[in-house]
């Protein structure tokens, strides 16, 4: 069933407890994906698409090995991780004025997802 990896990537169980987490993760996807498109991959949309496809394939393989049913947050985290590694020394501001280097942003977001959603994935 070839459609299962695709639906696992784009599905997120939105409910009373997960609606806010879903919106925040969509914001992160939009923000850092657009920063990658206009920054490191400026003028090279095929390279950006290949990076997304490669990340997606790696996430699907890992998801099969680890029996993960939802792959949206890992894909968002992979885009965020690529941006953070390309901008390691940039100072970013997270909620409530917390400032730190961009290389620590994926770990902060991972902790944030755990606190808000009660799960890493």
UniProtKB/TrEMBL annotation:
Membrane topology: Multi-pass membrane protein
Main location: endoplasmic reticulum
Biological process per Gene Ontology, one example term: response to stress
Subcellular location field: Endoplasmic reticulum membrane
Entry's transmembrane regions: 6-30, 51-84, 104-120
Keywords: Endoplasmic reticulum, Membrane, Transmembrane, Transmembrane helix
Pfam families (alphabetical): DER1
Listed GO CC annotations: endoplasmic reticulum membrane
InterPro entries: DER1
Family statement drawn from the similarity comment of this UniProt entry: Belongs to the derlin family.
Function: Functional component of endoplasmic reticulum-associated degradation (ERAD) for misfolded lumenal proteins. May act by forming a channel that allows the retrotranslocation of misfolded proteins into the cytosol where they are ubiquitinated and degraded by the proteasome.
UniProt-recorded name of the protein: Derlin
